[in-house]
From TrEMBL:
PROSITE patterns in UniProt: CRAL_TRIO, MSP
Residue span of region Disordered: 252-314
Biased composition (Basic and acidic residues): 268-279, 298-309
Protein name: Motile sperm domain containing 2
PANTHER family to which the protein is assigned, alphabetical: MOTILE SPERM DOMAIN-CONTAINING PROTEIN 2
InterPro entries: CRAL-TRIO_dom, CRAL-TRIO_dom_sf, CRAL/TRIO_N_dom_sf, ER-organelle_contact, Ig-like_fold, MSP_dom, PapD-like_sf
Length: 502
C-alpha cells in the first residue's frame, strides 16, 4: 500500500507539473487555443493523466501531444461542432456511425469501407464528420474507450484513402488519448495487405497491440452475434438510416405490472437523439440530507412499505449532482443468485423544485424497473427497483439512463401531466445520468480473463473525480466509482482464491 501511495503521489506531481508547464510555456498567445480547452485542462486531472499515460508519463511528450491536440481542436471548432455543422449527405451515407458494444462493453465505432471514395473536395467534411462522432461520444461517455471496426466487405483499392486512414489513426494516437480499446479489421481483401503494412508504420507500439485482423468466422471472438450484422454471421437486424442518429440505444423498460405505455412511445426519435453540445466542468458537492418518502406513484397494497425493495442490492456509492443525488454512482451489480437479481437506485432531490425522472435501458427485455417514470418532491427521496428477469444475465453491454428535469411549482405529477412535460421540456434542461452493469457472479467466479480483470480494476481506480458536463442549462452527469467498489471486487477475488486454491 505504501508503494501504491507513493506511486499515486508521483503521478499527482507529474499532473501538476504538466499543467503548470503548459500554462507557462504554451499558453502565450491568447488566441492560440480555444480557451474552453485550456480551462478544462487546468481543472481536469483525469484528462492530464490520460495524456501522460499515453506518453509513458513523459511530461515533455505529453505537453507536445496536448499542444497538437488543442491546435487541432481549435482548427476543427470541436467545442462548437454540432449535427447541423456537418453536410446532411455525410449522415445519409451511413459510412461512419456508433452502434452496439463489444464483449468488454466498449461502444463500437463502425467504418463501412465500401461506402468511402477518395475525393479531395470532401476530405475535410469527412474529417469533421469523424471528429463529430468522437467528440459526441467523449462528452457523453467520458473515460470510456471505443472499439473501431473497419468493415471491409465488398471493398476494394478504390475505397482506400490513405490520408483519411492516417487521420483516423491520429485521432486516437494524438487527439483522444486512451480512447482506443482496439481496432478490428474485418474481412480484409488480400489485395489490401500492402496498404495495411503502411498503416502499421504509422502506429506506435501501444496502438499496434490494439490492431486486430479478423475474418467473419473470427470476429465473434471480440463481438457477440447480437451486435454483428447478418453478413458477418451475426443476428443484429440493425439497418442504418438517417435521421435520427443511431447511437441512442436507450428504450423504455418494463414496469412491475407489464410494459409501460407512456410518452416514450410517442416522442420524436429525431428530437431524442439530437446532438448535445456539452462543455466539461465540475460538480460542486451538495451537502443536503433529504428526507425519505415513498415514490409519488400510487402503489398497490402489496407494494407498500419495504416489500418492493426487499432483497434489492443496496447502493454503497453516491454521485452528488445539481438536481439529484444518485446512488449508486456508476454501476449496477447483478448475479445469478436470487439475492443478486435486484438492484436499488436511490434518487434524492436536492433542488428547490419538483423533479421529474424516467429510466431507460438498452436491454428492455431483460429488466423490470419500478417506478420508471415519476417525479420527486424537493428534499424527498425515491427508491427505484431494477430487477433482472429470470433466464437472463447482466452483461457489460447493458446500459441504463436516468433522465431528470425540474418541473414548475404546482405542476401535476400524474401520468398525463408527466407525458406532456417530457414532450415540452427543452433537451437542454434535461439531466442525464448513465449506468453500466456488471455480472458479479462472473467476476467472483473468475469468468473474465486476468487481463480484462486488471483493465477493469485500473479503469475504475483511475476515474475518481466526478464530472458534470454543461452547455448553457444542459446538464449531463457521468458517474464515477469510489474505492469501495474496488475493495468489494478484491474481496471477492480473495474469497475465490481461498475457496479454490488454499
Amino acid at each position: 500500500m505504501a508503494n501504491l501511495s507513493l506511486l499515486q503521489q508521483d503521478i499527482e506531481k507529474k499532473i501538476e507539473e504538466t499543467k503548470q508547464k503548459f500554462k507557462n510555456e504554451y499558453v502565450q498567445e491568447s488566441d492560440k487555443y480555444d480557451s474552453r480547452d485550456v480551462d478544462r485542462l487546468q481543472k481536469d486531472d483525469a484528462l492530464v493523466e490520460a495524456y501522460l499515460t499515453w506518453r509513458q508519463y513523459s511530461v515533455d511528450d505529453a505537453l507536445k501531444m496536448i499542444d497538437d491536440s488543442f491546435l487541432w481542436r481549435k482548427e476543427f471548432g470541436l467545442n462548437d461542432l454540432t449535427e447541423s455543422s456537418i453536410p446532411k449527405w455525410m449522415f445519409e451515407t451511413g459510412a461512419v456511425f456508433l452502434h452496439g458494444y463489444d464483449k468488454e462493453g466498449n461502444k463500437l465505432f463502425w467504418f463501412k469501407v465500401k461506402l468511402h471514395t477518395k475525393d479531395a473536395k470532401t476530405i475535410m467534411d469527412k474529417k469533421k464528420y469523424v471528429a463529430f462522432w468522437l467528440e459526441r461520444y467523449a462528452k457523453r461517455e467520458p473515460g470510456m474507450p471505443l472499439t473501431v471496426v473497419f468493415d471491409m466487405a465488398d471493398s476494394g483499392i478504390s475505397n482506400i484513402d490513405m490520408d483519411f486512414v492516417k487521420y483516423i489513426i491520429n485521432c486516437f494516437k494524438v487527439y483522444y488519448p486512451k480512447f482506443l480499446s482496439k481496432m478490428i479489421i474485418v474481412d480484409m481483401p488480400w489485395i489490401m495487405n500492402a496498404a495495411w503494412k503502411i498503416v502499421k508504420t504509422w502506429l506506435g507500439p501501444e496502438a499496434i497491440s490494439k490492431l486486430k485482423f479478423a475474418s467473419k468466422n473470427e470476429i465473434q471472438t471480440f463481438i457477440d452475434p447480437e451486435y454483428l450484422p447478418l453478413h458477418m454471421g451475426g443476428m443484429d437486424p440493425f439497418k442504418y438510416s438517417y435521421p435520427p442518429l443511431p447511437d441512442d440505444d436507450f428504450q423504455t423498460p418494463t414496469c412491475e405490472n407489464g410494459p409501460i405505455v407512456s410518452e416514450d412511445d410517442n416522442e420524436s426519435k429525431e428530437g431524442e437523439s439530437e446532438g448535445k453540445e456539452l462543455e466539461s466542468s465540475f460538480s460542486s458537492e451538495v451537502a443536503v440530507k433529504p428526507k425519505k418518502v415513498q415514490s409519488s406513484l400510487k402503489l398497490d397494497d402489496n407494494d407498500k412499505g419495504d416489500c418492493r425493495t426487499k432483497g434489492a442490492r443496496k447502493p454503497l456509492t453516491t454521485f452528488k449532482g445539481p438536481l439529484l443525488n444518485v446512488s449508486p454512482a456508476e454501476e449496477l451489480s447483478f448475479g445469478t443468485k436470487e439475492s443478486e437479481r435486484k438492484c436499488l437506485i436511490i434518487l434524492d432531490n436536492v433542488s428547490k423544485n419538483q423533479v421529474a425522472f424516467k429510466v431507460r435501458t438498452t436491454a428492455p427485455e431483460k429488466y423490470r424497473v419500478k417506478p420508471s417514470n415519476s417525479s420527486c418532491e424537493p428534499g424527498a427521496s425515491v427508491d427505484i427497483v431494477v430487477s433482472l428477469h429470470g433466464g437472463y444475465q447482466a452483461s457489460l453491454q447493458d446500459r441504463f439512463l436516468v433522465m431528470a428535469a425540474e418541473m414548475e411549482q404546482n405542476a401535476g405529477a400524474g401520468s398525463p401531466e408527466l407525458a406532456q412535460f417530457w414532450k415540452d421540456v427543452p433537451k437542454t434542461k434535461i439531466m442525464d445520468h448513465r449506468y453500466t452493469t456488471i455480472n458479479v457472479s462472473s467476476w467472483t467466479g473468475m469468468g473474465i480473463s486476468t487481463m480484462q480483470f486488471m483493465a477493469k480494476a485500473n479503469h475504475a481506480i483511475m476515474r475518481t473525480t466526478p464530472h458534470i458536463q454543461t452547455h448553457e442549462n444542459h446538464i449531463s452527469t457521468r458517474q464515477v466509482p469510489v474505492i469501495s467498489q474496488m475493495i468489494l471486487l478484491f474481496d471477492n477475488v480473495l474469497l475465490y482464491i481461498h475457496k479454490n486454491l488454499v
